[in-house]
Amino acid sequence: MVTSKTISNGILRALTTILVIGAILYFIYEIKTVIVYLVISLILCLIANPLVQFLKNKLKFSNSLAATTALILFILAIIGFILLFVPLIISQANNLSLLDTDNLQTQFVAWERSIESYFNIQHVDLNKVLKDSKITSKLDFSYFTGFLNSIMNFMADLGMGFVSVFFITFFFMKDQEDFKTTAQKILPDTNEDKILNSITKINHLLTRYFIGLLLQLTVVFILYLIVLMIFGNKNAFVIAFLCAILNIIPYIGPIIGTILAGILTMISLIGSDFQSEILPTTIYVVIGFLLVQAIDNNISQPIISSKSVNSHPLEIFLITLISGITFGIVGMIIAIPAFTMLKVILKEFFPDNKIVSVLTERI
Questions:
Q1: How many Å apart are CA 144 and CA 10, to the nearest integer?
Q2: Phi first, then psi: what are they for 311, rounded to 5°?
Q3: Cβ(363)–Cβ(355) under 8 Å?
Q4: Which residue among 8, 140, 203, 240 is buried most deeply as judged by most CB within 10 Å?
Q5: Which long-range contacts (CB under 8 A, 24 or more apart) does 151-155 make?
Q6: With 0-12 CB in 10 A as exposed, 13-18 as middle and 19+ as buried, what is 205?
Q7: Between residues 357 and 155, which one has the greater pLDDT?
Q8: 109: Cβ–Cβ under 8 A, 6 or more apart, which residues?
Q9: 327 with 338: CB under 8 angstroms?
Q10: Domain ranges in the chain?
């Protein structure tokens, strides 16, 4: 028989559970920076893992020496990047951020008139339509420079956490075996082998994926840079860098990058003749970016997304699409690593399930 006391106790337990969950979520939110550091350190550990294993197995380095060597190489690579490229990025980004937005708006109106004249549009008074809609007054031309500044601010904030990230990464690389031993003591005996096998396979697949992704972004950056330099873009490096970073977002990222490259190319040519320089150069840059994406989509991405994590390209596309619809851009970025982890776990714990066996036959 349900009594008022039973109902009260149930409500009290529910409220307590909600409060506990809320407190946990709030705590996670408060330490979100630490969580980001842990994730970055884990990715660096996965990327460095082949080198660490080579140093330990082939050159007989100790755990500490192998981890220290890998970490020093990371630091040297970052220092080299800073010395070679960051001053160039900052100077070019500052040039873009100092553009006169009022001048941009005036130039945009001039472009409208040039487009109307260039395509001989006689039956539509574009100037009147645009004036009636007041579109030029509504456009915020500082958005693009604000975007560049936000990227630079993010990089500066990330730089403040380098010491923390490297400290965590060092112990991730150094104490892998100790972590595994500790896990064996904690895990229940019935599922110990399955969990450890899952961790080993996940580590192997994600290591291949992140190394491949890093290589892909480097190749795309170089190709973008070549395209922009061919057409004499004054901000070739920073535009290529930003557009390559956007390639982390599957499918949508390259599209955003192409649009951004076209807009920034037009901005960099302010003062030039629209018909003979601005429009043709922008079209050529966009075509060049589309060719780079065609190469990337047909060569780089299939190798990385399919072979590195042993999944079919259609499977990767669908899971990325579903993740994007459900969780937005963040979901698209983490879709492939998360799906890979899920597949490995399902195969270890439910190998006899027909659906699982079909989905995981490549692993």
A1: 54
A2: -130, 150
A3: no
A4: 240
A5: 151/93, 151/242, 151/245, 152/89, 152/90, 152/93
A6: buried
A7: 357
A8: 136
A9: no
A10: 190-363
Question: 128 pLDDT exceeds 80?
Answer: no
Question: Residue 77 and residue 64: Cα distance in Å, rounded?
Answer: 20
Hey, what are 96's tokens? Answer: 């873009």
CA 10 to centroid of chain Cα atoms: 44
pLDDT greater than 50 at residue 122 = no
Task: Judge whether residue 133 has pLDDT over 70.
Answer: no
| Gyration radius of the chain over CA positions | 26
> How many degrees, rounded to 5, is the angle at CA 93 between CA 88 and CA 98?
130
Q: Name the least confident of 218-222, 295-299, 343-347.
A: 295-299
Q: CA 197, CA 193: separation in Å to the nearest integer?
A: 6
Q: At what angle do helices 252-268 and 236-246 cross, to 10 degrees?
A: 160
- List Cα–Cα distances, 26 to 8, 20, 33, 189, in angstroms: 26, 10, 13, 33
The whole-angstrom separation of Cα 267 and Cα 99 is: 9
